[in-house]
Amino acid sequence: MKGMGNMMKQAQKLQSRIAKMQEELADKTVETTSGGGMVKVAANGKQQIISIQIEKEVVDPDDVEMLEDLILAAVNDALTKSQEMVASEMGKITGGLNIPGLT
Q1: CA separation, residue 45 to residues 56, 58, 60, 74, 101 (Å)
Q2: Any long-range contacts for 31-34 (C-beta under 8 Å, 24+ apart)?
Q3: Fewer CB within 10 Å, N side or C side of the chain?
Q4: Could you say which DSSP state residue 57 is in?
């Protein structure tokens, strides 16, 4: 029984560290660009887009599809980088263990 109690304490410590890390990740950001820097997107560690910047030169009313594609590419890349950042930080806490539902 003593081993089980110790294991529960370890699980609680891990859970506490993960909760703290998730709070900290909300303040960490990643940024990406598309179109040679014409569209910039930033995302936080909660996989939320926090800013989009579009250079005036890329705004062409006759080619809205190109702008949409640039925004989509930058947003998807920002979200991917955000997920990678979270996975990296989570790996530091879990020691690389793949624990379902934690990322």
Answers
A1: 28, 28, 32, 16, 16
A2: 31/78, 32/74, 32/77, 32/78, 32/81, 33/74, 34/70, 34/71, 34/73, 34/74, 34/77
A3: N
A4: G
Give the SS3 label for residue 61: coil
**pLDDT digit string, tens, across residues 25-51:** 889 999 999 999 999 999 999 999 999
| CA separation for the pair 35, 33 (Å, rounded) | 7
Q: Can you say how many angstroms the Cα of residue 18 is from the centroid of all Cα atoms in its chain?
A: 15
- 82's CB contacts (< 8 A; 6+ apart) are 30, 43, 44, 45, 46, 47
For the chain, list the domains and their CATH numbers.
Answer: 2-94 (3.30.1310.10)
**56 phi, psi to nearest 5 deg:** -60, -35
pTM of the predicted protein model: 0.76
Strand partners, 34: 39
For residue 51, the cross-strand partners are: 42
